[in-house]
Design goal:
It is a single chain. Helix content is 59%, strand content 14%. It is built from seven helices and five strands; from the N terminus they run βααβααβααβαβ. The mean pLDDT is 95. Strand 4, helix 7 and strand 5 form a beta-alpha-beta unit. The protein has a single domain, classed as 3-Layer(aba) Sandwich (Rossmann fold), CATH 3.40.50. With 138 residues, the chain is of the alpha/beta class. The longest helix has 18 residues. Strands 3-2-1-4-5 form a five-stranded parallel beta sheet.
Length: 138
């Protein structure tokens, strides 16, 4: 069965407009939530309405047991990817901490056999150039 790991930008779009990205959520396969994405979403919560929406989302994924946390091996692989991105692509992680999160998402997606769905083509394509994982650009 197809496993889908959605990036933060896809979920933010869904919060803003529930009709967006229906094809991801309503097609074959199961949608999973990365604990990294959960952290990024929670960091953006600044109102009671946003907190309610965040809690509903996280509660749902907890109930269906589809929150994925990177393993120690995924963290090690993410470090390797970050090192390669700095050498091969000129990334400066001091200026782009979000690339660390994206590397964790990519590593954990490959570990679980999932496809990452994202709008962040620049960073995830750079990761894909160095690290073999499945990604779908939306």
């Amino acid at each position: 069965m197809l496993k889908k790991l959605v990036d933060t930008n896809i979920l933010i779009d869904r919060f803003s407009n529930p009709s967006l990205h229906k094809e991801i959520f309503l097609s074959d396969g199961l949608v999973y939530l990365s604990s990294v994405v959960l952290m990024e979403l929670r960091a953006g919560v600044h109102t009671q309405e946003a907190l309610r929406a965040f809690n509903e989302l996280s509660d749902f994924f907890r109930r269906v047991d589809r929150i994925v946390a990177p393993s120690v091996k995924d963290y090690e692989k993410a470090g390797e990817i970050i090192s390669s991105l700095q050498s091969a692509k000129g990334y400066d992680i001091r200026k782009s901490a979000s690339i660390t999160n994206d590397c964790l998402i990519a590593a954990s997606a490959r570990s679980m056999g999932a496809v990452v769905y994202t709008q962040n083509k620049k960073d995830f394509q750079a990761i894909k150039d160095i690290f073999d994982f499945k990604v779908a650009f939306v």
